[in-house]
Amino acid sequence: DVKVTQSSRYLVKRTGEKVFLECVQDMDHENMFWYRQDPGLGLRLIYFSYDVKMKEKGDIPEGYSVSREKKERFSLILESASTNQTSMYLCASSHRGLNQPQHFGDGTRLSIL
Amino acid sequence: GQQLNQSPQSMFIQEGEDVSMNCTSSSIFNTWLWYKQDPGEGPVLLIALYKAGELTSNGRLTAQFGITRKDSFLNISASIPSDVGIYFCAGRQPPNYGGATNKLIFGTGTLLAVQP
């Protein structure tokens, strides 16, 4: 079974803090993704990565950055957290290839006070 | 970014009823995926569709890839209380539509509530 593990299920931080969300997958997937999920808006792609040290912006990258130093790990960074970044964050991974589905972690519910 | 039109937004049904939901797009897709998200969990893949017209079942779930490649539906037969959750469609556009070939576009979700 594919396992995508997010380091925290719940996180509470303060405005202005630098926040790190970690994601690890154990299936040697080339692709990794970070989404945020908000009521009524579905899943929106923040950043994704096709390979180590490679990253590309998704639909809503503003206020976020990412790091992929190792194939199995993809980190999402909130440089200076703001209240509008309170959300559920979901990490996903997949093999390279047109027909490879994405597999998701259980999510991190982040609250910025 | 683009989102898929998913309907209905929510459904409240009695146990045993059949359920149908769908996703539509103004552009074509070469892959359709259906996910279910239980409360407090991440989405789990239910069914993947790769060819126009393809009809695939997974237990009580059946999904179809529309002939026009612009839509897909998911049916759940004889619903049970554990079917409760949010169902998402997701599509992947052909490479010549631009963007990454593994990038998914998601629907806004259908919330399903099943009363025993």
Folded structure, characterized:
The complex is a heterodimer of chains A (113) and B (116). Chain A has 113 residues and is an all-beta fold. Helix content of chain A is 0%, strand content 53%. Chain B has 116 residues and is mainly beta. Chain B has no helices and eleven strands. The interface between A and B is medium-sized, with 31 and 28 residues.
Write a brief structural summary:
With 113 residues, chain A is an all-beta fold. Chain A is 0% helix and 53% strand.
- Percentage beta strand of chain B: over 45%
Oligomer: heterodimer
Which two chains form the greatest contact, residue counts included?
A-B, 31 and 28 residues
- Radius of gyration of chain B equals 14 Å
**Largest β-sheet summary of chain B:** 6 strands, mixed
The biggest beta sheet of chain A reads: 7 strands, mixed
Morphology of chain A: globular
Mean pLDDT metric of chain B:
90
| Low-pLDDT windows of residues of chain B | none
- Mean pLDDT of chain A equals 93
Percent helix of chain A, as a range, is under 10%
Tags for this model:
heterodimer, A: 113 residues, mainly beta, 7-stranded mixed beta sheet, 4-stranded antiparallel beta sheet, 11 strands, 53% strand, B: 116 residues, 6-stranded mixed beta sheet, 5-stranded antiparallel beta sheet, globular
Topology:
The complex is a heterodimer of chains A (113) and B (116).
Chain A: E1 4-6, E2 10-13, E3 19-25, E4 31-38, E5 42-49, E6 56-57, E7 64-70, E8 73-78, E9 87-94, E10 103-104, E11 108-112
Parallel strand pairs in A: 2-11
Antiparallel strand pairs in A: 1-3, 3-8, 4-5, 4-9, 5-6, 7-8, 9-10, 9-11
Chain B: E1 5-7, E2 10-14, E3 19-24, E4 31-37, E5 44-49, E6 55-58, E7 61-65, E8 71-76, E9 85-92, E10 105-106, E11 110-115
Parallel strand pairs in B: 2-11
Antiparallel strand pairs in B: 1-3, 3-8, 4-5, 4-9, 6-7, 7-8, 9-10, 9-11
